[in-house]
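re: ur question from earlier - yeah i can do the single chain one, its not a big deal. heres the input i used so u can compare w yours
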Amino acid sequence: MDIRALLPHRYPFLLVDAFVALKGDHFECRKNVSFNEPYFAGHFPDEPVMPGVLIIEALAQASAVGLAVRDGLNGGIGYLAAIDEARFKRKVVPGDKLRLTGEILLFRRGLCKVRAVALVGEEVAAEATLSFMFTRR
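and the output i got, formated as tokens:
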């Protein structure tokens, strides 16, 4: 429920299941990838793979949670402004547990930049540098 208070997203687009930790500029969230996710019915149905765009969205949501917790942005909404240096290194399949980690690189006047990484175990599944613009609701 705490994540729902921080993010405007709702099912099926709320992709962060748990906030795990915040240490300085580093944060970690979790996403449990279930076969029941609606996109698996049509995205490579014979060999289900989580769409890369949804992994990036999960990283963006985890980043917004990390920024909100660190900087007290409970009244704001983070809009994704840019995706740079995105790389997909491993497919994500049902049953995987995504660790969504990041480092806040810049936060100034509602503009921020985060280096975010999605891991399955210790293996990098995807990574990107994400830029956000925060506004008040």
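The mean pLDDT is 90. not sure if urs matches, ping me
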